[in-house]
Predict the 3D structure of the following.
Amino acid sequence: MKKCPYCCSTKGYYMMERVRRALHFTFDDEPDGATEDVADYTGRRKYCRECGRILPREKGGTE
Ligand SMILES: [Zn+2]
């Protein structure tokens, strides 16, 4: 797939990833950094970066 079939954008696509991160605070309620992002869930669907629509799977699709 070289372009979005909906809007014909060639900008590319994105996939959603959900991450977990802990925000640290001192007991004085001052922000004190955060942990590294840990991937919680990674989606397999591809979304057009331009219009945000879910792109059809590549194999077998003739539309
Ligand atoms: Zn698009």
